[in-house]
Design brief:
This protein is an alpha+beta fold. It has 4 helices and 12 strands. Helix 1 crosses helix 4.
Length: about 220
């Protein structure tokens, strides 16, 4: 059982998280066409015209563990066409039958890791995120009670793990990496947690989450 102090700290953080997010009422099918405020080109602005982007959505699952919040992430399998082997949030492309990005994120999450929709309390979303691979991703944020059993899709998911939210919010863990992409050296955010490297779009979305929370803390 969590101590009274831990419960008080988690409640305070929960309220700040809710305050920093864009409201769920704004999650409409047209929200994927909104201006792009953040993305893979934040550190190195693009020099060419932006391509047509494919709408997608991911779930940012904040698991309410007795010791504090954790963020649930997946390790993608190596044979996937998009982002093979990378660490990511559960999610994927928007389907024509999806009512909005919430529906996309919840559907994809249940398909990939077996997390039932009723276990997720959606509280809002982060800014749409443009990836260098041509996706416009809506990160949908939800609280998850730690009473679930997961069943992963072995074709898409190699592993599921959790990272303490405090680790991701600690500025000493915010690193910048470099890699050649289409003949150009590009910079990207990186978190090294134990023997795992969280980088690229996933790290970029986490940094956007951090910036929103930091603004809320200061405000």
């Amino acid at each position: 059982m969590p101590s009274a102090l831990v419960e008080e700290q988690m409640q305070a953080l929960r309220e700040r998280i809710i305050r920093c997010l864009i409201g769920r009422q704004e999650l409409t099918p047209t929200s994927a066409c909104a201006p792009i405020p953040v993305g893979d080109f934040d550190l190195d602005p693009r020099t060419e015209e932006a391509p047509r982007l494919t709408p997608a959505a991911v779930l940012v699952p904040l698991v309410m563990r007795p010791t504090g919040f954790t963020v649930l992430l997946t390790q993608r399998t190596q044979h996937l066409r998009d982002h093979p082997g990378q660490i990511s949030f559960p999610g994927g492309r928007v389907e024509a039958t999806d009512e909005n990005p919430i529906a996309t994120a919840l559907r994809e999450t249940q398909e990939e890791i077996g997390l039932p929709r009723h276990c997720v309390d959606i509280i809002g979303h982060l800014d749409p995120y443009e990836t260098a691979t041509g996706f416009l991703v809506t990160p949908v944020v939800g609280f998850v009670q730690p009473v679930f059993r997961l069943k992963t899709d072995p074709f898409e998911v190699a592993e599921v793990f959790e990272v303490p939210l405090t680790f991701l919010l600690d500025t000493s863990n915010h690193q910048i990496g470099k890699r050649m992409f289409c003949g150009t050296q590009r910079r990207f955010w990186v978190f090294q947690y134990q023997d795992r490297f969280i980088w690229g779009a996933t790290a970029g979305m986490l940094m956007n989450f951090f910036r929103r929370l930091h603004h809320t803390f200061e405000g």
